[in-house]
């Protein structure tokens, strides 16, 4: 599927076929493709919990205002923003940059000292904002990656964060950003036309 097709054909599906499943290899392939999303300083702050079992989807539905698509979808991705991403990932990123010729070891050592602070302190608003923003970019990439595999999606903000945190044992440094339900359209479902989108003339201001 071409990118233009993925963009123009993507819809937020409410009715999934509960009989069709997504295998773990496909999940892995989709997540690896989604992980090519851009992030500040390539620090990749996202964490994912992939809910495949019926038991855990039922738990997730209970903290998502009872929305049926949570249990009907083949998989539901819980996207989390890790506020400690800079400290955790900086060395891995810098080692790769040295290996690929972006910088030498001395420059990398200096970056290791300065980059985490540039992202804000781990408990600051700036750090959380950066983590959530970059995880949202991952989320959009995830939906396009699913489209490549013929899998429909629905991003969801309708959940209770503290109950989600408790039921799935989510650490304090992780911020729940969104759920992405993924699966296949329920047979016999007819989608209405896409709701009108504003044109660039409505929202763009050229200087």
From TrEMBL:
Keyword presence, Oxidoreductase: yes
Annotated GO MF terms: oxidoreductase activity
Keyword Transferase: no
One Pfam family of this chain: Nitroreductase
Domain Nitroreductase: 7-184
Cofactor(s) needed: FMN
Keywords: Flavoprotein, FMN, Oxidoreductase
Protein family: Belongs to the nitroreductase family.
Protein name (database record): Nitroreductase
């Amino acid at each position: 599927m071409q990118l233009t097709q993925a963009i123009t054909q993507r819809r937020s599906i409410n009715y999934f076929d509960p009989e069709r499943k997504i295998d773990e290899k496909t999940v892995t392939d989709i997540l690896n493709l989604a992980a090519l999303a851009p992030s500040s300083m390539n620090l990749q702050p996202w964490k994912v919990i992939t809910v495949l079992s019926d038991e855990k989807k039922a738990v997730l539905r209970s903290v998502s205002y009872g929305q049926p698509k949570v249990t009907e979808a083949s998989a539901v991705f819980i996207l989390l923003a890790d506020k400690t991403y800079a400290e955790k990932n900086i060395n891995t990123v810098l080692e790769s940059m040295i290996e690929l010729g972006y910088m030498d070891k001395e420059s990398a050592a200096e970056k290791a000292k300065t980059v985490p602070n540039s992202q804000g302190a781990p408990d600051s608003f700036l750090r959380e904002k950066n983590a959530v923003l970059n995880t949202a970019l991952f989320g959009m990439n995830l939906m396009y990656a699913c489209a490549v595999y013929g899998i429909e999606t629905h991003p969801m903000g309708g959940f209770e964060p503290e109950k989600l945190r408790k039921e799935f044992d989510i650490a304090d440094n992780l911020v729940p950003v969104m759920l992405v339900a993924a699966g296949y359209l329920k047979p016999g479902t007819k989608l209405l036309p896409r709701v009108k989108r504003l044109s660039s003339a409505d929202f763009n201001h050229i200087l």
